[in-house]
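hey so u asked for the seq, here:
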Amino acid sequence: MESMSPGHALAIRLESLDPWRNLAVEEYFIGRADELGPVLLLWQAERAIVIGKNQNPWQECNLRALRQDGCQLARRSSGGGAVYHDRGNLNFSFITRRSDYDLSRSFGVVLSALARLGIPAVRTDRNSLFAGTGKISGNAFCFKRGAAMHHGTLLVDADLDRLRRYLTPVPSDIRSHAVSSVRDPVTNLRTFRKDLTVEELSLALCEAFRNDRGNRMAIVPDGKWPDDEIRSPYRKLISWDWIYGMTPAFTIEWKRPGEGRELALQLEVDQGFVSAVSCPGADGPLAEALGLALNGCVFSASALMQRLRQHPRAAAFAAFGAWADFLEGHAPS
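ran it, structure tokens below
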């Protein structure tokens, strides 16, 4: 695009509601940070939970509820915690050369836009934005090669009931070194401005960005970014290997009372595959059969249940009567 010339800041409003596509566009601009000036992307998505790069989806969200409601799950390239997206949420992404990265400056643009709309907000020491007693924005950061990105959410009129439903995981016994989300009380910006729209907020952010850059900014429409440069990150972002397989290694345990003893099943999961199985409370042959059946299996309900049903000693697994319910609560089908 001719308007995307080096030296000028760019504000781009993405039209797509596909969370993976918009995350792929972020990666496209991260890859071009050296040749372009500062970029501000503004975008929305259909219902989705977006987790941080180093998080465990089984710990962060209710996967069963996501499946039931058709809510998407994405993993981004930045750190931080899990966030909820829908059409009532506006996402912003500041992308620049790493040498030009200034976190206070990008936060200043957002706070200036909110102040322009009559909404007093503050930045916390955990780099969230609060208005009143509620969190209105979660933020995360990514550094790649010579590029830096600060991106975040702004809850305008998001469905907070769905947010809480999806970000309340099924109770479980998971031991992991994955990054855990900080679960703060949240609120919408419409609490403070009843008539506020996502478009009005988007325009306020563009104006604040223009002022910050001394009017050296161009607002350009969403473009047809080169397919070959979007396709590769998009394929990565939608893949099972990225969304689930990038989960840091963890151990999950299921227990149920048995006849005179407690039965337990412990699975160690690494890169999305069962790497070890132990069965405290089960007799030796049953424990051995479970280990042979499940070791090396993808950690998903359908794959694990198929392994159990096809095993020659399948009848022995009846001792784990709640097994299917356990899997449906903790593994994506």
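The domain at 9-241 is CATH 3.30.930.10 (BirA Bifunctional Protein; domain 2). The two ends are 42 Å apart (CA to CA).
lmk if thats what u needed
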